[in-house]
Amino acid sequence: MGDSFTEGTGLSFENTFAGLLYAAGQKRPEKIEFLNAGLGSYSPAIYYRKIKFLLEQGLRFDEVVLFSDLSDVSDEARGYFCIDDDPKLSVYCDAHEMDLLRQRRTHRTRLQNHFIITDRLIILIKQTIAQVRGKYAPPPSQFALFHYHNLIGGWDIPGFDVGDFYAPLGIEGGVERSLANMRRLAEILKARNIPLTIVVYPWAIQLVNGDRESRQVKIWREFCVQNCKEFIDLFPTFFSEREAHKDWYERLFFYRDVHFSAKGHQLIFREIAKHLL
Hints:
By secondary structure, the chain is mainly alpha-helical. The protein has helices at about 5, 15-25, 45-55, 70-80, 95-135, 145-150, 170-190, 205-210, 215-225, 235-245, 250, 260-275, and strands at about 65-70, 195-200, 230-235. Residues about 105-120 and about 125-135 have low confidence and may be disordered.
């Protein structure tokens, strides 16, 4: 479970870490089946509701491996109020969000293949332009090009001015709501004896800033003491790649994009396989 990083934006399923895990699991004498429920823009409110829904529909599974994204706090601070189980948040539910939720339910299945194709086409165009220009990975000083994404991750960047981007709940409200929804998830899993594993991984901006022990890591490591079977921190793995390769950005991420490339997914697979296979 996760968001667009777990879904594998811009890649076919076979080239994502989830797809690689699935293939490896099927090759074992005792097969392991990996199902990927991650989707773009998911956050703890939806992780909880989606897994609860799947359980109520009768889907049986042995473990949940949840990839917590840097953007989760931003999403929890700014939206998905119409679906939260906390009645105090209903005051923030408005007609615009309800319309978006209806559109998503109505059109996602019909259009999702078109969006996948569009994602891949955009990324292919970006890569081709970069190669023609001979300028592939932007130096760290140019990460301001990702200003919107920096705002999304700004809660984890000391001293970064996020303005009112995290309204209406603010950064601390987003953190607390993330924790509350993850506690709800942990409780329904515990009631069914289903273990929870949480995985954290860095965005490029965190690698640029040398943020090895980020607030994101601390929050979910502490959460997992009481609520998880295992906590997996991929920050050291990615920082090792950064130190070993000057072209770490072009190796691990799509050009001018925050999402992982096929090599980035391979790196995650190699590390996660040590825990899950």
